[in-house]
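Worked example 3 (structure in, sequence out).
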């Protein structure tokens, strides 16, 4: 590891240093989250005639898996300080809750489920922007995290703004979001991998 990394590690707050260390050691979890998101998008592209309810169930499964991965990463944070890992845990809890709601509340109208997905995306986006702020002095390319957060927020706003768009338009919106979001997570995972201790 270069001296630049060591020097910047000494100047950064301990919470940010611990967070970066954990993210770097578990960089493959971000990669996995990105690959799962892209898989969701590809499925939606390959089967555009899938019903919106089926896609929401598929998204529910994705949200649960993504939430579990985020919580696992939060609990594997080095050290006893819970400060830098709360956003990872909250991301996981929100994802799991949203995924379970997609399966449990099958009597909900599609509109209500879409609003639920939109709120989930906005919360996840805000948490990613928070993480980017925490890591801005630690890594050079936090734009991966910033862009994924902005994409999530934009996706949520689009779903809220045009909830009555045709089913195909909503499916394509979810598919594009999943692919772009997944690509951002994959890019971020390789950026953070650079800080992994050998």
């Amino acid at each position: 590891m270069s001296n630049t990394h060591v020097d910047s590690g000494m100047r950064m707050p301990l919470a940010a240093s611990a967070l970066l260390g954990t993210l770097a050691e578990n960089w493959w979890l971000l990669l996995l989250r990105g690959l799962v998101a892209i898989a969701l998008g590809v499925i939606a592209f390959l089967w555009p005639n899938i019903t919106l309810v089926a896609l929401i169930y598929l998204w529910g499964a994705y949200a649960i898996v993504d939430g579990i991965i985020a919580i696992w990463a939060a609990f594997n944070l080095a050290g006893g300080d819970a400060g830098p890992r709360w956003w990872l845990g909250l991301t996981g809890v929100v994802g799991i809750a949203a995924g379970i709601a997609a399966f449990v509340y099958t009597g909900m109208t599609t509109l209500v489920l879409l609003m639920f997905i939109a709120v989930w995306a906005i919360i996840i986006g805000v948490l990613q922007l928070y993480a980017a702020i925490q890591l801005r002095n630690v890594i050079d390319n936090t734009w991966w995290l910033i862009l994924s957060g902005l994409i999530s927020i934009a996706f949520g706003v689009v779903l809220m703004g045009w909830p009555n768009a045709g089913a195909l338009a909503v499916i394509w919106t979810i598919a594009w979001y999943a692919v772009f979001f997944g690509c951002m997570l994959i890019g971020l995972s390789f950026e953070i991998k650079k800080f992994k201790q050998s």
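Notes: DSSP finds eight helices and no strands in the chain. Helices lie at 3-11, 14-25, 27-46, 52-75, 86-104, 110-135, 143-161, 167-193.
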